[in-house]
Amino acid sequence: MKANDWHDPAWVSSAHDWIEAHLDAKPTGWIEEVRVRPWSVTHRVPTSAGDRWFKANTPACAYEAPLATALAEWFPAAVLRPLAIDEQGWLLTADEGPTLRERMAADPGHWPREQTWSRMLQAYAVLQRAGAPHAEALVSLGVPDQRPHTLPAHLKSLLADPAVAADVDVAAVQAVPLDDWCAELSADGIPASVQHDDLTDANVFPTGPTGFRFFDWGDASIAHPFGSLLVALGFAAHVLGVGDGDPALARLRDAYLEPWTDLAPAATLRRSVSLSCRLGRVSRSLSWRRAVRDAALPVDDDFRTAAAFWLGELPQPPVV
Question: Which end of the chain is more exposed for a tag (fewer CB within 10 A), N or C?
């Protein structure tokens, strides 16, 4: 049995045994596979206390389990707390109801998109600011270290990987002044923190008018915190139906930056967002390379080439 073969009967039996041993309520129905990817799988477990959710990661992404637990210990109101974890990268969590995306779709009058995204991004920045003192502890738990000073070596590794470099304009990527950008970010006064790297409204539960609980840390790293805006603002542009450089994206950026304004002037913070969103493409490439490493299922071309896609975007300007 492979350690991460989602459809191997022996693996499924082992996972279900673990789930049943760690449930906090009596099961009331069959365990059901709900979402499956080459890098993770999610099962739903109906219980007398509501649904419970099991997630398994491949070994390269197994750090999500200790990361989620540590964040829940430090910031219980801001993240989804696992009911149980396993060193294999397994998590068991309680159902938190509709995600922010589902809430906005069901009641757009109560959850106006731009204002809701603004509140969400600001709450996430508060979490990152509070988490900065724990950066080294999280690296010691296995969370990837992608702070600015590490990125030149990471880029060399990506370009030396035939599976990535075959689909990249290597000369264009190498022409980017990466060392200078990394040095500038390292000196901007913003501490490294947990960088979600897949922050969208589908990975957040609203807990009130201004409260949010964040989850799904399988792509996360310790990095310059502003890199989270690469995916967040890119997806916000899609949600809001706006293009790159739209004033709405600048407003979202500035809302996110508000909790950091005591650390640097506004111009410095905005410059750091621009650099972080460009360098965040290296982080996204690293995330995708981890995702397809030791994949549990066949990998489609869109997933296989995702690391190269993000690396190829490195020379392009950010959305804001």
Answer: N
Handedness of CA 9, 13, 14, 16 (dihedral sign): positive
- pLDDT of res. 1: 40
Examine residue 317 and state whether it is found in any structural domain, yes or no.
no
Residue 302, classed as helix, strand or coil, is helix
**Cβ partners under 8 Å of residue 310, min gap 6:** 281, 282, 284, 285, 288
Q: Which of 60, 94, 128 finishes a domain?
A: 94
Output the six-digit token pair for 34.
């709900």
| Long-range CB pairs of 176-181, under 8 A, 24+ apart, other chains included | 176/278, 176/314, 176/315, 178/151, 178/152, 178/279, 178/282, 178/314, 179/152, 181/148, 181/275, 181/278, 181/279
| Structural domain contains residue 320 | no
Calpha distance 320→318 (Å, rounded)? 5
User: What confidence score (pLDDT) does residue 179 get?
Assistant: 98
Q: Please work out, in degrees rounded to the nearest 5, the angle formed at the alpha carbon of residue 64 by the alpha carbons of 13 and 309.
A: 105
- Which structural domain range is residue 84 located in? 9-94
Q: What's the full length of the chain, in residues?
A: 320
Asked if 303 and 288 count as a contact pair (C-beta separation under 8 A), the reply is yes
Q: What residues have CB less than 8 Å from 136, skipping those under 6 apart?
A: none
Mean per-residue pLDDT pooled into runs of 10, the chain (320 residues) = 78 97 97 97 98 97 98 97 96 97 95 96 98 98 98 98 95 97 98 98 90 97 98 97 96 98 98 98 98 94 96 94
In a domain, 319, yes or no: no
Is pTM beyond 0.85? Reply is yes
Query: What domain count does the chain have?
Result: 2
Whole-angstrom distance, CA of residue 191 vs CA of residue 125:
12
CATH code (residue 147): 3.90.1200
